[in-house]
Amino acid sequence: xxxxxxxxxxxxxxxxxxxxxxxxxxxxxxxxxxxxxxxxxxxxxxxxxxxxxxxxxxxxxxxxxxxxxxxxxxxxxxxxxxxxxxxxxxxxxxxxxxxxxxxxxxxxxxxxxxxxxxxxxxxxxxxxxxx
Length: 131
Description:
alpha+beta, globular
């Protein structure tokens, strides 16, 4: 399952259709996948223009293992503060100490916490096999 991965490559699409891949953390909220990202990131801007996304497992550096199967889906931006906080907590619990370290480094480098949104990603459910 994609939500069990530590990192995935998230591809969002420019207006001209060109895909741009970014390595992200991922977690599960019910039947949907969630990604925490800065509000002003280009991936948020691309999702606003085109909700199509592609996900594939990768390592921290974005290297996709041979034979990894991509999954297409649709993303929506969750910017309601209460819902974002609830979903943010899911990501924090999954990544634990790593989350704390990365957020601390970001606060130092960016001189404060960046505003964030959640990308909620819906992927098609595989149809049951016939027979």
